[in-house]
Amino acid sequence: MLNDFFILMKQELTIAVIIFILLFLKLGKDRSNETIMHVVNALLLFNVIFGFIGNSQGILFNEMYRTNPLMVLEKNILSLAMLIISMQSWSWLKTHKHVIEFYLLLLSTLLGMFFMISGGTLLMFYLGLELSTIPLAAAANFNLTKRQSSEAAMKLIISSAFSSGLLLFGISMIYGTTGTLVFSQLPQLLTNTPLQIFAFILLLAGFAFKISVAPFHLWTADVYEGAPVAVTSYLSVVSKGAVLFVFVSVLYTVFKPLATAWYNMLFILSLLTIITGNLFAIRQDNFKRFLAFSSIAQVGFILIGITGSSQTGSTSVIYFVLIYVFSNLAAFGVVSLVSALTGKEKISDYKSFYKTNPVLSWILTIALFSLAGVPPTAGFFGKFFLLLAGASKGNYLLITIASLNMIISFYYYLRIVKAIFMDPNEQPIAKITIPVFPRIALYACVIGVLFIGLFSYVYEYIHSLNSPF
Amino acid sequence: MSNYSYIALIPLLPLASFILLGLWGRKYFKTSAGIIGTASLLASTLLSLYAAYSYFFVDGKINGAYGKVEVLKYTWLQFSPGLSIDMGFLLDPISIMMIVVVSFVSLMVHLFSIGYMKGEERFATYYSFLGLFTFSMLGLVLSTNIFQIYIFWELVGVSSYLLIGFYYDRPSAVAAAKKAFIVTRFADFGFLIGILILGFYGGTLDFGTLLQRLTSIQSSEFISITRASFLGVSMLTWGLLLVFMGGAGKSALFPLHIWLPDAMEGPTPVSALIHAATMVVAGVYLVARLFPLFAMDDAALQVVAYAGILSALLAAIIACTQTDIKRVLAYSTMSQIGFMMFALGVSGYGESKGLGYTASMFHLFTHAFFKSLLFLCAGSIIHLVHSNDMKNMGGLRKLMPVTHFGFLIACLAISGIPPFAGFFSKEGILMATYESNKFIFFIALFTSALTAFYMFRLYFSIFWNKEASTEKTHHGEGSLSMKVPLIILTACSILAGFVPFSKLITTDGIPLEEHMNLLFSIAPVGLALLAILLAANLYKKANTRPQKLSQSLGTLYIAAKRKFYIDEVYLFITQKVVFNLIGRPAAWIDRNIIDGSVNLLATVTGKTSQGIKGLQSGSVQNYALYFFSGIAALAVIFIYLWK
């Protein structure tokens, strides 16, 4: 039992240990920010590497906790994203007074996400979800002097509370109609009664809120804009990714009896989400807000992949999230550097960016191309597999509208590329020297974007972990 | 069967040149970039020629038919036991023909650009983009599956975006590049869905297997794809039409052609490469690649045929009224692509029914030479005159003898005058059309006469018309590197027609006996000669009336009284009737309706997006309200309405 405990929960335990180490660091004498960040980054790197060692499968604590190789991989993707974000925020954190607290908050949420992914009952899932949300609101407030930042935090906490309330309401109704909260027992007890469908809608809204599906997305833009860039990228990549992982597995296993209902719901929601995301993205001038809406549109595409409801569907979603981690973080990395060093966050500030910062311009361009889905960047493969999974249900209306929206999205991604390379600007952003850590992180992202798509092994590996449904 | 692994080098060499020049070009190869790029292309071209030689004349034939050879094929992704994506290089008659054409024309353009782009600030960047483009195009034609072709297809789009927008400080170039990219992307979305449909029903993405499964009437895949239908049209037709939509976008067929004339903003050699021989024929190649499948479906073939002839005719008429020489050439390209398309559309599969296919590929082949020659000539003319407008030209024949000769040959070739290259291929197309669709044939005949007219209108306006002004002579015709490609391409335009095409490329790979029908050729050649005479009459001598007449209707009558009556009839027919009654409306439709609908989409999207901005008010209470209404709506729909 104890052995199992250490082996199965190794990823959660690692994070917990790191949290403790950081707390001890805080207790001791004052250390310079740089020292702390060196230590943290080393620990996070260790966490990533350690996560990849060994795959295990098992159940603990009366099915409260379960794990399998797919979940291990999902957690590793999140750890990797966490490491990249941490390295990218170097320039911003260097002068910040509360570095350790920042990491404590983010790592707590990461721990929450791990428990959420591994949760074997609705209760455990809910606990994980809350642990991954509440500290984030504090983190969103981390630009302590900025009013906008606190506003973002307030908005995040209020809307999360609202969605959690409804989620709990849904959970209690499910418990009321079935008498259990355990994932493995639920499928036999769900019978498509109206009450269960209503309960499911409430649960769906909770998920939809976290991954910003329209019309539950409205908090996204404000929070993304107000929060520090590091938190924004964490919200848009890690937090979203974790919920998506859970969402797919819950839909495909627990709520399989309700498949017809959720297929149709996702159909409507995905169209709504893609269209909303795209329409709003066109008009944005704030880069973070722009990325917020572009990420909403991306989630719409993911929902299309989910409607495929098959092994391919699940694979394509996880694969896409992996690619999305790299492409979105590459974009956020550049924005984060520019924002930390010059304070500029508007798209119009990026005019003639290429003249002063060719390297960063190329990185941003590659990232945007990948987000838009231009081959041979990984983003193209991700989208292609999502559409392929969606098409397997033969729903061409959905695919057609989605592809049309891909063209619209081209327009706005290209608009930024054009601004960077072609638009004249009297005072372009000054030349930025990229510190070592962000440099490594950015290059890692670019390599990921350029090569993940080409190495089919990645896709095949994820595919092999997904059991057929 | 000999080992064709060296084929991989053909696309990889330009890629190497791209990487080398892209990364270190600006630092180390500022002046030698041209030589490096040209050398890599020279190697590619030689390899392609060698591959063509060994395939066509040594060991390509198996049992009397040219078969497919797949080189370096490996399974890239295994979806399921039945479905996998295999990457590799596919060699068959058309892909071999294409690599020869693409690498050869690209080599000529590389060579020409050494002189043309000399002293350009971003000389190395230019060559790296050329390398990327050539790599993508070669990769496209060598693709062994439809997924691979799509990747390269998009890469071609991206690299052409870079090339067209090369002069990024010119707003018009930027706009043109963006337009080209967006319009072709729009077409590509059709292509992507087409791929998904064909791949889904065919259970494979591999060309060989796909064609094999979907062309045999008994196979379960064929039955399922023809049984399934959407809006009353079978999925096979949908799939093919959507794929064709992608092809039509890249090949600038009506109504997706609007990007092509604007794309002339790129450097002229780039136009020669992209808009003569490579990117624009990608659509034709795509249809040819899937031709056995198209041949199974009459409806799709009909669409291909009529889209082709419509573009051919419309573009020819518009070309008669343009004064920017590159635009004339652009419309003429569009018209010739139309020829290739409808030739495919009227063709059938197998033996002599496949003549249209052979003729289409033949025309693609010869067109590549004379059209790139025309563009490169235009390049050296623009280099000398510093203007694109043919009003600023005239009498250049003595100043630039090489260009003059090349341009003349190319004009003769495109007009279909024997014994130049275009004659043979165009005869093939007309003959095949005559045998299967008389209606299209007569339009094609008329269009081919129009072709001769507008080409010679261009020729006479540039090289004859008025006396050249002497101050333009400060530098001659350009350096040797600019002349040599012209001379080589001129030779090709004269000789390419003698390639025994029907022995090499047929629908089923079995060589056909060629038979020329001299009697048949009288009509097209006669009409072309007439059109040339007409053009000579109007444009050989300096003559300002054509412009005056076309601009003002009022002065037409007075002017007409004073001059030769017969001259005025010609003018009336060509300038007034053709220009005002057909050309202008055609140009108007082109500008307002086609462009307009694209702009409309953008405007509507923009407006809607502004309209709904209020939703995003920033107040949390409202957000909660929307949140809750979302839940309520879902609940109402799924609990009460759906059942």
TrEMBL record, chain A:
**Per the record, a Pfam family?**
Proton_antipo_M
- Mention one GO biological process in which this protein takes part, according to its record: ATP synthesis coupled electron transport
Its keywords, alphabetically, are: Cell membrane, Membrane, NAD, Quinone, Translocase, Transmembrane, Transmembrane helix, Transport
Tagged with keyword Zinc: no
Q: Which reaction does it catalyse?
A: a quinone + NADH + 5 H(+)(in) = a quinol + NAD(+) + 4 H(+)(out)
Main location group? membrane
For this protein, the Enzyme Commission number is 7.1.1.-
Bilayer disposition of the protein:
Multi-pass membrane protein
Location in or out of the cell: Cell membrane; Endomembrane system; Membrane
Q: Which residues cross the membrane?
A: 6-25, 37-56, 76-93, 100-117, 123-144, 156-175, 195-219, 231-255, 261-281, 290-311, 317-338, 359-382, 394-414, 440-459
What class does this enzyme belong to in the EC scheme?
A: translocase
What molecular functions are annotated in GO for this chain? NADH dehydrogenase (quinone) (non-electrogenic) activity; NADH dehydrogenase (ubiquinone) activity; quinone binding
Example GO CC term: the record gives: plasma membrane
Q: Which PANTHER family match?
A: NADH DEHYDROGENASE (PTHR22773)
Q: What family does this belong to?
A: Belongs to the complex I subunit 2 family.
Q: State the oligomer form and interacting partners.
A: NDH-1 is composed of 14 different subunits. Subunits NuoA, H, J, K, L, M, N constitute the membrane sector of the complex.
Q: What does this protein do?
A: NDH-1 shuttles electrons from NADH, via FMN and iron-sulfur (Fe-S) centers, to quinones in the respiratory chain. The immediate electron acceptor for the enzyme in this species is believed to be a menaquinone. Couples the redox reaction to proton translocation (for every two electrons transferred, four hydrogen ions are translocated across the cytoplasmic membrane), and thus conserves the redox energy in a proton gradient.
Can you say what this protein is called? Answer: NADH-quinone oxidoreductase subunit N
From TrEMBL, chain B:
Q: Kindly name one Pfam family recorded for this protein.
A: Proton_antipo_M
Tell me the GO BP annotations in alphabetical order.
ATP synthesis coupled electron transport; electron transport coupled proton transport
**Limits of the NADH-Ubiquinone oxidoreductase (complex I) chain 5 N-terminal domain:** 76-127
Question: Can the keyword Transmembrane helix be found in this entry's annotation?
Answer: yes
- GO CC entries: endomembrane system; membrane
Where is it located?
Endomembrane system; Membrane
Its main localization is membrane
- Identify a single GO molecular function assigned to this protein: NADH dehydrogenase activity
Superkingdom of source = Bacteria
Q: Which residues cross the membrane?
A: 6-24, 36-58, 94-112, 124-143, 149-168, 180-202, 222-249, 270-291, 303-321, 328-349, 361-385, 405-424, 439-460, 480-499, 519-539, 623-642
Q: Which keywords does the record carry? A: Membrane, Transmembrane, Transmembrane helix
Q: Which residues form the NADH:quinone oxidoreductase/Mrp antiporter transmembrane domain?
A: 143-451
Q: How does it sit in the membrane?
A: Multi-pass membrane protein
PANTHER family membership? NADH-UBIQUINONE OXIDOREDUCTASE CHAIN 5 (PTHR42829)
- Protein name (Swiss-Prot/TrEMBL): NADH-quinone oxidoreductase subunit L
